[in-house]
Amino acid sequence: MTTHAASALDDWRRSLDRELAALEAGGLRRTRRTFTPLQDGRLRSSDRVLVNLAGNDYLGLSHDPRVIEAARRGLEETVGSRASGLVSGRSPWHEALERTIAAFEGCEDALVFPTGVAANVGTLTALVAEGDVVFCDRLNHASLVDGCRQSGARLRIYRHDDLETLSRELRKPFDGGRRWIVTDGVFSMDGDIAPLPELCDLAEAYDALIIVDEAHGTGVFGETGRGVCEHFQVEDRVALRIGTLSKAVGCLGGFVAGSHTLCELLLNRARTQIYSTSLPPALCAAAGVALEIIGNEPQRRDRLWGRVDETRRLLLSAGLIDANCFRSPIIPIVLGEPRPVMGAAARLEEAGFLMAGIRPPTVPRGTSRLRLSLHSELAESEVTLLVEAMVAAIAAEGIKSRT
Ligand SMILES: *Cc1c(COP(=O)(O)O)cnc(C)c1O
Fold this sequence. Notes:
Order of helices and strands: HEEEHHEHEHEHEHEHEEHHHHEHEEH
Number of helices: 14
Largest sheet: 7 strands, mixed
Number of strands: 13
Oligomer: single chain
Bound molecules: pyridoxal-5'-phosphate
CATH class of the largest domain: Alpha Beta
CATH architecture of the largest domain: 3-Layer(aba) Sandwich
Structural class: alpha/beta
Helix content: 40-55%
């Protein structure tokens, strides 16, 4: 008995080594690094200060003194929230944050989840039923795909932005439950935005419902920073919007914005809401203040878009992107194979710029890329240096951008 157990254990441990070795051989092994967050959109890695172009803190709110002060006040009372929201983990901070989100989003109500991933998985599994069909863009965030799968509904993954296939599928007779179209607002690895007006037209023509994940849209897109639905003025045409407090809001947590009835139902049904400890009150306080800043200081967004436009202009004239590249703070420079991407990322780091090299399985094979993620704290003068460094790093790897 003991020897058998020991040999199964040894065998399994050796298989872990083999799996890691296979990743290593394919240039796909990921390792973690440690960065000390600094002010002004910078980080420290060992002894070097780097401009962070690999983050999601688009407006610099993660370290805004007012946001930090709000968190500090919350921390004076407690660190952990001590239970799930339905048991005893709901505090006045949670209540206030949900009111702030609802006001910011122009919705009747909002429901906060521990993370954006939890909001996606919990909401989809609560709302999408087994007899339903879900249409999911191939480039949607993993948590949307997971939520769709776990719902038990029939899952139809369509090619990115392929409205033709989607419309052909929707035209087919259907006598099951409901049909849903689930999409990222901003696609996180490509930076492009979903064609929401066309998706809404399709949904309305064929009685489907749309769910939009605004993770990279909140605080960045739209007249008042509510995201891509606001940008396209389709907020009233989508069933609901899911967002995160971990990107432009600079904190942590996910949320759903919609009607009071929807939020009541979700708090009864969404398993990631019911079975997970609620957010720490300090984070609720911080996120509430960050959302107020987003509402009151549109100049932060204007500054971000100024940097986006200047960077795109320079990348375009350097031939690193083409004119079809979306106007977005996330700019992919597709180079193809993982090794030159990681090589270029290392050279950029030597030059003081931290940029993510993105490889499979995060993106399809043959589309490994540098992912430039801009933020409002980047100085205007830095944009020129950044693009020059990108040109040099990519040239030194002996490759060309395919974008
Ligand atoms: C980051 C991201 C999430 C997850 O949000 P977290 O708050 O980090 O869990 C969900 N959807 C999309 C599209 C994202 O980019």
